[in-house]
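pasting for ref
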Amino acid sequence: MGQKSFHTPLGEITLSADDFGEGNGLVSLDEGWGRDQESEDSLLNQAEEMLQAYFDGECRDFSSLPFKPFGTDFQKRVWAEISKIPYGETMSYGDIAKILNSSPRAVGTATGRNPLPILVPCHRVLPKNGKIGEYSFGDGADTKEYLLNLEKHFLDNKSAV
């Protein structure tokens, strides 16, 4: 497994990738510096470049990155559905639950266990009341609100490519 730590507007984060099974894939994005397993892995470098471009308003989609998160089949279905939410838009837990023929609570639980926040944009999932709700990464709801406002800013100013 390779890791790459770098600075973002949210602080230091670490991306991890593994080459289990067929090919290489990103498995997690965590807060803080990782262990001394820095990698020159091209996938990790590409993911870092895309994340930095996201914070600059120049990247709106991470679907070209291979994801291999650990989770149940249901969690992976939820994360795949979340990945379809367009940049700058939101959906409710209930909306996703209807698509997956599940319950909003189950979708919320799976969303909270997303190991690739930002890349799998769970910050775009809101409670049905439209409020920010909870967020399991960074400073919680403040980080979620920051990411939503960042996307809104670049959409409103048409600064992103």
